[in-house]
């Protein structure tokens, strides 16, 4: 592996680490909020709030694929 290629790989690894640490921080905050809601007296929308927090924590961690094409769009474009 040449030096330029190695440098690029190191930079990519550092970026991936930064993203992972940010996602971990978001997940911990979401879990803390979920725990607080679960430990509080039951309210009519507690489960809905927990579901929204969990979904937001998970969805935010997944990067969008720039090459993704939905099924409908793919069918419209055709060969």
Polypeptide structure, described:
The protein has helices at 3-39, 46-59, 71-77. By secondary structure, it is mainly alpha-helical. It has one domain.
What would a concise description of this structure say?
With about 80 residues, the protein is an all-alpha fold.
Total strand segments = 0
Q: Give the rounded overall mean pLDDT.
A: 81
List the domain count as a whole number.
1
User: Low-confidence runs (pLDDT<50, min 5 residues)?
Assistant: none
Q: Which range best describes the helical content: under 10%, 10-25%, 25-40%, 40-55%, 55-70% or over 70%?
A: over 70%
Write the layout of secondary structure elements.
Blueprint: H1 3-39, H2 46-59, H3 71-77
Features:
79 residues, mainly alpha, 73% helix, flat
């Amino acid at each position: 592996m040449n030096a330029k290629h190695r440098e690029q790989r190191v930079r990519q690894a550092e970026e991936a680490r930064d993203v992972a640490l940010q996602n971990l921080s978001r997940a911990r905050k979401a879990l803390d909020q979920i725990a607080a809601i679960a430990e509080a007296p039951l309210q009519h929308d507690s489960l809905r709030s927990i579901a929204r927090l969990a979904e937001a924590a998970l969805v935010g961690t997944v990067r969008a694929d720039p090459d993704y094409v939905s099924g409908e769009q793919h069918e419209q474009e055709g060969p």
